[in-house]
Design a protein that fits this description.
By secondary structure, this protein is an alpha+beta fold. It contains twelve helices and 14 strands.
């Protein structure tokens, strides 16, 4: 059955757009709800600087006055400069199991993108690689990270029936962390040699000490990920916004930076105690008890989620990577953390995915970016 499409333009419509997934997944034990207040801020054009570098439309699909789907369409001007042509992005797609609703939502975006000269539509994407991206196509019985993708299995069918095809796949692993491993034993000598040359881990006592390194941290992140599929440049405003949005959750124990002999940050490794279950207990609200659930999650956890690991392309990776990896290994071992959850990694990045394959994999999740050629 078809649906009517509304472009979000009022605060009440925005709230309806934000709240739809909470109702759609109400009975799903693996859904991890985001904090409602933060979602309202994130999708506010006045507060999120991503709206300044992109033309954006938030769409609601409704039948008989009831919301049955939503999607975000993005024309990213910085991505256009990077690619040399226009690509329409779609993201935060949610829909009941109804081909007509999916067709109405994505068809509306396709028409808009064609009118703007786009040659293709691709997604799910966000404003940047720091936002959720990818559609879950395998691993539905696993709890995602708080930034991971999650959706019903039928979403893939809805997209493929509309002519969407695979662009790239990401792989996420949940692995059992070994107390001992030959790989890390072999790194000890290499790390000692690098440290003699002046490479070192930056010591951090608390979150406040992170601030003075943030410019270098962002520079390494952007340089390391610049050529990866779907990555777009970040403005200074976006960096500041994401710093305020995410770094409040950072645990200094898992915020690893490696400096070279010239005291330049050249490698970064960011992990976080898994907050998926605390977020589920919070049910989208920080108050009255959500904040307490999240605080407890930092103190008691059995899993650390890996978010970013990057080395500046001009740095000596053979010196820096062993320091990063061995440091994280020692921290996890000291804290007796039994499980790791990797972030999304491109399936053809075998230098990384091959490493995780050497461990006891508890489960594996696969997410996909879909694309469709448009007439232009």
């Amino acid at each position: 059955m078809s649906a009517g499409i509304i472009e979000v333009g009022t605060k009440s419509e925005l709230k309806e757009w934000v709240m739809f997934p909470y109702r759609l997944y109400r009975q799903d034990p693996n859904y991890v709800p985001q904090i409602i207040r933060e979602e309202m801020d994130f999708f506010s054009a006045e507060r999120n600087p991503g709206f300044k570098i992109a033309d954006t439309r938030l769409l609601l699909a409704q039948q008989n006055g009831k919301t049955v789907g939503r999607v975000c369409g993005i024309l990213h001007r910085l991505e256009e400069k990077k690619l040399g042509y226009k690509r329409g992005r779609f993201g935060w797609f949610e829909c009941v199991d109804d081909a007509g609703v999916a067709s109405a939502l994505l068809g509306y975006l396709e028409e808009w993108f064609v009118s703007q000269g786009c040659r293709e539509i691709s997604g799910p994407h966000g404003f940047s690689d720091l936002d959720p991206e990818g559609l879950l196509i395998d691993g539905f019985d696993a709890l995602p990270t708080i930034s991971g993708s999650y959706n019903p299995p039928y979403y893939r069918r809805l997209l493929e029936d509309l002519g969407y095809e695979k662009a790239v796949d990401y792989i996420e692993h949940r692995i059992e962390f070994p107390a001992d491993n030959p790989l890390f034993r072999r790194m000890v000598k290499r790390v000692a040699e690098a440290e003699k040359e002046g490479y070192r881990v930056v010591k951090l006592g608390n979150k406040k000490e992170i601030v003075k390194y943030l410019d270098q941290w962002w520079n390494v992140l952007e340089a390391a990920f610049e050529d990866i599929y779907g990555v777009t440049p970040l403005t200074d405003e976006q960096k500041k916004y994401y710093t305020q949005k995410y770094f409040g959750f950072v645990d200094p124990n898992y915020f690893i930076m490696v400096a070279d002999p010239q005291d330049r940050i050249q490698g970064i490794f960011l992990g976080l105690p898994s907050l998926s279950k605390p977020f589920q207990k919070a049910k989208g609200k920080l108050f009255p008890l959500g904040f307490l659930h999240i605080l407890r999650g930092f103190k008691k956890y059995d899993t650390v989620d890996f978010y970013f690991a990057g080395i500046h392309p001009q740095a000596n990776a053979r010196k820096i990577f062993p320091i990063m990896a061995l440091t994280m290994h020692r921290i996890l071992k000291a804290k007796c953390v039994p499980y790791l959850e990797t972030n999304r990694e491109l399936e053809d990045n075998i230098s990384v995915t091959g490493i995780w394959g050497k461990y006891a994999v508890v489960n594996k999740r696969r997410t996909r970016i879909f694309q469709k050629q448009l007439p232009f």
